[in-house]
Design goal:
By secondary structure, this protein is an alpha+beta fold. The protein has a single domain, classed as Beta Barrel (OB fold (Dihydrolipoamide Acetyltransferase, E2P)), CATH 2.40.50. Helix content is about 20%, strand content about 35%. The protein is built from four helices and nine strands. A six-stranded antiparallel beta sheet has the order 1-2-3-9-8-5. The protein has a three-stranded antiparallel beta sheet with strand order 4-6-7. Strand 2 and strand 3 form a beta hairpin.
């Protein structure tokens, strides 16, 4: 399982990277493996303010639909347009081209509540 050390993680299997006050968010390698082939990503929160732990969208796989929970509070700035035509990118490159949203952080202190790569790896038993 791939768990980059430079990212933060949630117990709900989202990852977040931060550059200044902008956060990029996606689902973890573990999550995409558990879901299987992803066929649709639905995010309807563009330009909306969301709070930490709020649902910001869903990921649909062949056999299930899973909610996406925001690791932090902020305003959704961008949705990955590539996923409309190629949702399987989340499977093939979850930490790269498979990112899901970009968010402007409203409370950077919330990052302290997130898991390190080691803690996330321990959580999922990998």
């Amino acid at each position: 399982m791939n768990t980059p050390a430079n990212l933060h993680y949630t117990k709900d299997h989202e990852w977040i990277s931060v550059d200044g006050d902008t956060a990029t968010i996606g689902i973890t390698d573990h999550a995409q493996r558990e879901l299987g082939d992803i066929v649709y990503v639905d995010v309807d929160t563009l330009d909306k303010d969301i709070s930490q732990h709020d649902v910001f969208g869903t990921v649909e796989a062949v056999k299930t639909v899973s909610d996406l929970f925001s690791p932090v509070s902020g305003t959704v700035l961008e949705v990955n347009a590539k996923l409309a035509d190629a949702p399987e990118t989340v499977n093939s490159d979850p930490y790269g081209d498979g990112w899901i949203i970009k968010l402007k952080l409203s409370n950077p202190a919330e990052l302290a509540d997130l898991l390190t790569a080691d803690a996330y790896t321990e959580l999922v038993g990998a």
